Amino acid sequence: MNTLKAYKSSPTLENSTWYKGILVSQLAGGSDTGGAFDLVESRMKQGTEPPPHIHDREDELFYILSGELKVFAQGKVLTVKAGESVFLPKKVPHAYLIQSEECHVLALMTPGGFMNAINNMNAPARAMQIPSDMETYATADLTDTMAVFMKYGLRMLSPDEIAEHLPGYPTTR
């Protein structure tokens, strides 16, 4: 049996990566928590949001450190600002759009393990800032990305599913 150890963590180049135009600092992963959760700090800018999607395994909690998100889930459109959080249960289609120029978010995903998918597709951060020279979800061919995500229980929504489950989500961005 693997015994978990107490530790402290902060965002550093050693635990930070660039993924689809987002600076992601992994503060805790499944191997650190016995699979209980992943904890990441992310810095994102408008245009780096993932397409509408659904997780089969993870519940997500986002706490906004700075900036603002518009979150679409369960027929609701929620504006989430600095100092506020939003919970997105597994098996619930959802999406978000960054409303401020940048957004700084703490994300808790439970159970742990989803970050393994991201870690299969990211690049080491060269600086503790949002990358400016990287393709995003909006500019990338997502064929390989979707294949990796499917292995981890995440699926992008079809246009019909977006219309059905995420009223208010813009069909053109």
Automatic annotation (TrEMBL):
One Pfam family, please name it: Cupin_2
Q: What is this protein called?
A: Cupin 2 conserved barrel domain protein
Q: Which organism is it from?
A: Granulicella tundricola (strain ATCC BAA-1859 / DSM 23138 / MP5ACTX9)
Where's the Cupin type-2 domain?
43-106
